[in-house]
Design brief:
- Helix 3 packs antiparallel against helix 11, helix 4 packs across helix 11 and helix 12 runs parallel beside helix 14.
- The chain is an alpha/beta fold.
- A hairpin with a 2-residue loop joins strand 11 and strand 12.
- Bound molecules: pyridoxal-5'-phosphate.
- Pyridoxal-5'-phosphate (PLP) binds next to helix 5.
């Protein structure tokens, strides 16, 4: 099918919820993807922080193919070895004893909030409130879009679930004023991704941990975008010297096969009993085999180290561009391979110009270019992106 035919089918039949770029992608290899007209793109978005190993990684492809040939799905009425091994690995990696496997980020956050409510109610019937941060992003289900403190995701879906409140991200005074005996959980991204790659002030997350402890509230980290090595450690919270009570994962965990997970401290997890939560597909053998292959490749290929080193290089190079084009890039921030370059104006035009020149990035929060490439890129790939961006910014001129 040619490009126009595919786009016409989509226009006729798909729910009109996506503003897609006019490209039909067909295959990928390493950090590159190819469209159905043979054009090659360097993929520094990686399916929005998902393809941690790039495209067509031999270890991941082999694991998925082998598992697909053995058993794709069997429900959670039975045990599988791959699921047992995956939950063991995640628990050992996190310091949290219990794991539930879901299918997406939103679902992982839903489960985490359900668990927090159950646990809160063990202490008091009124301990049900959940505090989240403004400009956060936690998903598109009714509860997760309510947790997501951005009006654009909530408008039109009222009445929203009750018991949520929002505070400015990184503002400890506001958090102190908000947390009370009624708070069952504070839910935060350690670095806000969708909201514009916002890194909180040093010590903020640790102070929130202490505040939660003081009020008997749970601390939930949404590491759906920051987790699985993106920030240079497996979990971003490792760099803060703290552990949450619950952490959620998804996106990169299985390298592109749909998956989500929430992990909880033993005592918290005991608030759930048989029948309290579940999923038909969650934790199916295909997704678990893929996740195990991703974790294995991360260790064997030193990807945490790579994310640290190349993230630094990417930030340095973007800062050089910011100096060269001060009227265009105002700030560069991030950690590891989640990097944002804030612009003085809207970024969609720059993203489209990069795409035209064969580089995929995206723009979030309207004016923040976001770079979340596979973790196994090299310095040469960064040079390639920077050269293209340099040309695009030169043509673009100041806002
Ligand atoms: N939480 C964070 C931090 C995210 O970045 C996202 C997706 O962008 C989600 C939750 C929702 O994940 P999903 O789209 O898999 O439901």
């Amino acid at each position: 099918m040619n490009k126009n035919a595919v786009m016409a089918l989509d226009a006729q039949y798909y729910l009109p919820v996506f503003a897609r770029y006019p490209i039909v992608l067909e295959r990928g290899e390493g950090p590159y993807v190819y469209d159905n007209e043979g054009k090659k793109y360097l993929d520094f978005l990686a399916g929005i922080a998902v393809n941690l190993l790039g495209h067509g990684h031999p270890g991941l492809v082999k694991a998925v193919a082998e598992q697909a040939g053995k058993l794709i799905h069997c429900s959670n009425l039975y045990y599988t070895e791959v699921q047992a091994k995956l939950v063991q690995k995640l628990a050992q990696r996190s310091g949290l004893e219990r794991v539930f496997i879901a299918n997406s980020g939103a679902e992982a956050n839903e489960g985490a909030m359900k668990l927090a409510r159950k646990y809160g109610k063990l202490q008091s019937e009124s301990k049900v409130e959940i505090i989240t941060a403004q400009h956060s992003f936690h998903g598109r289900t009714l509860a997760t879009l309510t947790a997501t403190a951005q009006e654009k995701y909530q408008k039109g879906y009222e009445p929203l679930p009750q018991g949520f409140s929002h505070v400015p991200f990184g503002d400890l005074t506001a958090m102190e004023a908000a947390v009370s005996a009624k708070t069952c959980a504070v839910l935060l991204e350690p670095i806000q991704g969708e909201g514009g790659v916002h890194v909180p002030p040093a010590g903020y997350l640790k102070a929130v941990r202490e505040l939660c402890d003081k009020h008997g509230a749970l601390l939930i980290f949404d590491e759906i975008q920051t987790g699985v090595g993106r920030t240079g450690t497996f979990f971003a919270y490792e760099q803060e010297g703290i552990t949450p009570d619950i952490v959620t994962l998804a996106k990169g965990l299985a390298g592109g096969v749909p998956i989500g997970a929430f992990l909880a401290r033993e005592e918290v997890a005991q608030a759930f009993h048989a029948g309290d939560h579940g999923s038909t597909f969650g934790g199916n053998p295909l997704a678990c085999a893929a996740a195990l292959a991703v974790m294995e490749a991360m260790e064997e290929e030193g990807l945490l180290d790579n994310a640290n080193k190349l993230g630094q290089l990417l930030q340095d190079k973007l800062r050089q561009l910011a100096q060269k084009y001060p009227g265009v890039i105002t700030t560069v921030r991030g950690r590891g391979l989640i990097v944002g370059a804030e612009l003085a104006g809207q970024g969609r035009g720059i993203v489209e110009a990069c795409l035209e020149k064969g580089v995929i990035i995206n723009c979030t929060a309207g004016n923040v270019l976001r770079f979340v490439p596979p973790l196994n890129i090299t310095a040469a790939h960064i040079e390639e992106v920077i050269a293209v961006l340099d040309g695009v910014l030169k043509e673009h001129g100041a806002f």
